[in-house]
Amino acid sequence: MTTINDVARAAGVSPATVSRVFNGGRVTPERAERVRRAAARLGFAPNRVAQSLRKQRGSVIGLVIPDIENPFFTSLARGVEDAAQRTNLSVVLCNTDEDVDKERRYLDVAVAEQMAGVIVAAASRTRTDLSALAARGMPAVAVDRRPRGALVDAVLVDNRHGGEAATEHLLERGYRRIACITGPQGASTSEERLAGYLDVLREAPGHGEERARAYTRYADFRVEGGRSAMAALLAMDEPPDAVFVANNLMTVGALQVLAEAGRTPPGFGVLTFGDVPWAPLVRPSLTTVELPSYELGRAAADLLLERVAGTSKPLQTVVLRTSLRVRDSTAGPADPVLTPPLGAPAPA
Amino acid sequence: MTTINDVARAAGVSPATVSRVFNGGRVTPERAERVRRAAARLGFAPNRVAQSLRKQRGSVIGLVIPDIENPFFTSLARGVEDAAQRTNLSVVLCNTDEDVDKERRYLDVAVAEQMAGVIVAAASRTRTDLSALAARGMPAVAVDRRPRGALVDAVLVDNRHGGEAATEHLLERGYRRIACITGPQGASTSEERLAGYLDVLREAPGHGEERARAYTRYADFRVEGGRSAMAALLAMDEPPDAVFVANNLMTVGALQVLAEAGRTPPGFGVLTFGDVPWAPLVRPSLTTVELPSYELGRAAADLLLERVAGTSKPLQTVVLRTSLRVRDSTAGPADPVLTPPLGAPAPA
DNA sequence: TCAGTTCGTGAAACCGATTTCAGACCAGGC
DNA sequence: GCCTGGTCTGAAATCGGTTTCACGAACTGA
C-alpha cells in the first residue's frame, strides 16, 4: 500500500501538501503537478479507512431494505445507486429479510462503520428504531415506509390513492364482489392501500364498509400469504369475483390458487399493486397499480445527499404518485348477466 | 460517540485494558467485570473504522455481482449472507450491472475500504482483473464464473454437464430440431453450456455438430436478447421444434416470442437453465436445469472465511452439480407423427 | 520604508482503536 | 534474602489520513 507519506517523499513535499492537492487546498500549480505525477507513478489511492476515521464520516451510504428478492426493492436500489454514482459515495446494500433484529444489527454496523448516511425501508413501522442514528448525527431517509415517530426525511408512495384507483377500476368494470388481500396489520403501506379500497367501497351502492371488511384478508406480503388468503376468500359462502392484491408477491400466490381452482382472469378480476416482474409471461396480462420504485430510490438518495452535504433545511416528506396501468386481467366479470360492465351490450 | 477512552476512565483502567477485555487478553476477572459494566452503562461499541485502520483489515466482506435483479444472484447472496452471519463479518452487496468499469470501481472501493475479502461473480471472464486484490493480500473467491488467469479460489457450476443433461432430455422426448440460445461468446458459463449441448448433438444420429451450430444463437443473458434470438430461430427455413435456453432471463424473452407466434410448449419444447422465478405462474410448467445458487454462495463464503482466518491451504476449485427438474414444457413435440417420442405408441 | 495582509507550507495534533514493550507485582525455589 | 519466572498493567507507538497552527515570504497600500 502506498501511502500519502510515500507520495510526499517522492514529490519532495510534506504529507499535508499532498492531502491539499487531493482535497482542493491551495497549492502552487508547479508543486501540485509534481505531487500528482508522483501519486500516479506510485499508484496512490487514499486509504478510505483513514479518511473516515479522521473526518468522522465514511464515504459509503447504506441502503437497508427488507427483501432483496422483491423486484420493487431492487429497482429502488438501482435508483439510489444511479443518484450516488454522480458523487464519490458508494452504496452498499443490506437485506433485512423483514427481520427487525437483523435490521437493528445492520443499523449498528452503519453507526460503527461511520457511514455517511442511510436510506431505510423499515422492516416494521412500530419497532424499527432510527433514533440511534439521529443521536449520532447520521443522516437518514425513510423510503416507502415511514417508521413511527422517526424524525427523518421520507419519500413515500401515495398508497391510498393507488388503492382507490384500483378499486374504482374494478367497480367500473362491473365486478360485484371485490375482495382485498392486504399486507400485515400495522404496516403503513398495507393499511393505506386498504384504506383506499375501503374509501371507495364505503360509498359504492350495494357495497359499504361492513361488506368490504368481510372481503378483506390480511397476509404477509409474501407468496405463501397470498396463496392462503386467496384460498380463504374462495372458500367463502359467497366468494368474490375480483380481488385487489396489495403487493406483487402476494399476487403470484393468489394467481396460483386461482389457476388451481379454474377461476382465471379476467372472469375473476385480478388487480395487483406494484409491478410483477415477468408480468409479460402471465396470461392474461395483469392490470397493475404501478409504483415509481426507481424514482423512489432516486428521490431518497437526492434527499440524503443533501443532508450529507450539510443542508439544514427542515425535514421533508416527498410523496410520489402511483398510476393505474390497465391490462387484460380486469376486462370484466365472467358472468355479465348479473353485472353488466359499464358500456357493455346487454346480454341477449 | 463513547470511545474506549471514556470507558477506560469510567472504569478506572487504561484503554489498553479495555481493549483486552473485548479481545480476549488476560485481565483479572474483577477488573474485567468493572470494564464490562462501564461499557454497558455508557453504551460503548467499538468504532469499526478505527479497528480497521489499526488492524489493516475491515470487518465487511464485499459481494460483487453482475445483476441484482436476477434471482440467481439474490439467492446466491442469501447463501453468502447466511454463512457470514455466523461470524462477526457483515456482507455488503455491490451490483456491477455486467459493466466492467463499474466492477473495477467497486473493486477499488474494496481495496480502499480495506475489506476483509471479496466474493466476485465476474462481469467478464477476460477483462475482470482480480490481481490488484491479490497484490494487496486481500482474499478473493470467484463464484459462478472464473476470470481468466485469476489466482483465486473458485466455486463453479458444472455447466457442461447441465447442458448435456438438458439436450439429452430433449432428444429423448422426441424433439427433432433442437436449438440453443446461449449467452455471450467468451463468457465461460455460456461456452460451457453450449459445449454440453454440442457434445450430445454431435453424437446424435441425424444431428451432428454442423447442424447443431446452425441452430445455435448467441445472446446477452437478458430478456431482450432471448426475444431476438428466439425470433431469429423461428424465422429459419426449417425452424426448430425445441429450444434449450442457457439462462433464465433469456427464457422469459423466448417464451414471449413463442406465445406471440402461437407456438407454445410443450408442442414446442422449452428447457431453461437456471430457475425462473415465478415459474409456478408459467403454464405449462417449465423443465429446468436447476442451479445450486444458494449453495454456491454458501460454499464461496465458507472458502473466503477460511482465507480471512488465515489458512494457507492451496487454492481450491469447488464444482457443484446441476440437476434436471423435468416438468411439462418438454412433454413432447406437437407433431409426433414425424418423430415418435421414445416409448410412445406408434401413431394410428 | 514600514506595517498589515495574504498566501503557501510543514510540523504536529488528532481521529479511536490495537499492540508492543517495559515495569510492577507476586509466588516459588534455592 | 535473593533470584527467577510468570502474570497483569499502563504508557506509548502505530495505522494513514486531515486539519490546525505558526511561520516566513511576498505583496499591498500608505
TrEMBL record, chains A, B:
Coiled coil: none
Pfam families (alphabetical): LacI (PF00356), Peripla_BP_1 (PF00532)
Biased composition (Pro residues): 338-348
Membrane spanning stretches: none
Residue ranges of domain HTH lacI-type in the record: 2-55
Keyword entries, A-Z: DNA-binding, Transcription, Transcription regulation
Annotated region described as Disordered, given as residue ranges: 329-348
InterPro entries given in the database record: HTH_LacI, Lambda_DNA-bd_dom_sf, Peripla_BP/Lac1_sug-bd_dom, Peripla_BP_I
GO MF, any single term: transcription cis-regulatory region binding
Name this protein carries in UniProt: LacI family transcriptional regulator
